[in-house]
Amino acid sequence: MTIRISVKVNGTEYARDVEPRLLLIHFIRDELGLTGSHWGCDTSNCGSCVVWLDGKPVKSCTLLAAMADGRAVRTVEGLERDGRLDPVQQGFIECHGLQCGFCTPGMMMTARWLLDQHPDADEARIREAISGQICRCTGYENIVRAIRWAAEHP
Amino acid sequence: MQVPSQVEYERATSVEHALSLLGRPETRALAGGHSLIPMMKLRLAQPELLVDINGLAELAFIAKDGDQLRIGALARHADLLESTIAAEHFPIFRDAERVVADPIVRLWGTVGGSLCQADPSEDLSAAFAAARATAVIKTSDGERTVPVREFHLGPYETVIGRGELLAEIRVPVRTGTGSAYEKVSRRVGDWSVAAAGAVLELRNSNTIQEAGIGLTAVGAEHFVAAEAEDYLRGREASPGNFKQAAEIAAAHCHPAADQRGPEDFKRHLVAELTLRALARAAERAFQ
Fold this sequence. Notes:
Chain A is an alpha+beta fold. Chain A has helices at 24-31, 87-94, 104-117, 123-129, 141-152; strands spanning 3-9, 12-18, 50-53, 56-59, 72-74.
């Protein structure tokens, strides 16, 4: 059994027939082919699947695609604007904010949201914001630096 | 790959619509989904129909109404964490929300969903029990109210029946009250090893009119330390009495040894965290 859902992803409307049990992360990756968002722990612990739903970050492995019907999703592919990288993306380049890159899309989506709320977020606020996300490479130092870089280069 | 089993999905357009859908067998209300969907992935829950209530804006509020703080079941954890009205009267909720999961989960997970999940390690149940809150449940006939202390029948089990929906939680606001919540977890965002919440209502500045003590993750019946509350009622708000009450709370709960620690360690935490919560609650009541 499938249901028809319509989701606006990075500004483009997509209509698909999906099983109600389909998770949002699989909808984004497998149905739409937007593989920037990563499917990690599957238990809402690691945060590599973070995307925005109606303007707020969510762990998309723990939502059904059906719950996004009629809503707007923003993924890491939607960070870049008119060929220009978002300051958060640039910050990850400047500060070497990634090694393997698996956690990076989720980190960047949370960082963008944090800086929209608190443009001058300090280190403590940054660490709190990403506390629901796991990086196994960087020890978080360079991720925090990258987000600070973005705050300083809006 | 973890995928829920086949399920039907309906989106509720009103509370009445939700109630009629929830009347079907093997049906679950779906709010934040941050407990239910993981349970479905593990086949610990296998509903046949999910009723998505996220669109019911009338259940997403936090407001003071006379001598009650009213919290809609669909208020998100982040809403309660950031609510100045709630923090003004019950800082215990801000204390507890700060340590519920992580900031991303708190944006989507709901207060009502946490209570209905009835996980023994869930923080808000103890906080609401300490505050002697009341659950308002919508039914096909109207509504019924149940004290939060009678809301949970056991782990993962509540009084909510078929065709019913938790609509809001009401907390009585009284002057001279202070409250606090103290938790120990293994790492940020994890479940409690143990936690304690305290709500103290003081009279004539230093006599305890009423005490509420909630305990998380340590097998306390209805999430409360009733014997410790009985001990404090009518006594002076003093460090000695708090210490005695904390020891009583530790002696009367039933923690189980697990990967988060052995029983004696958890009892030690209950005593220490109860003591700290009482002291901080009293300090706030004096302010």
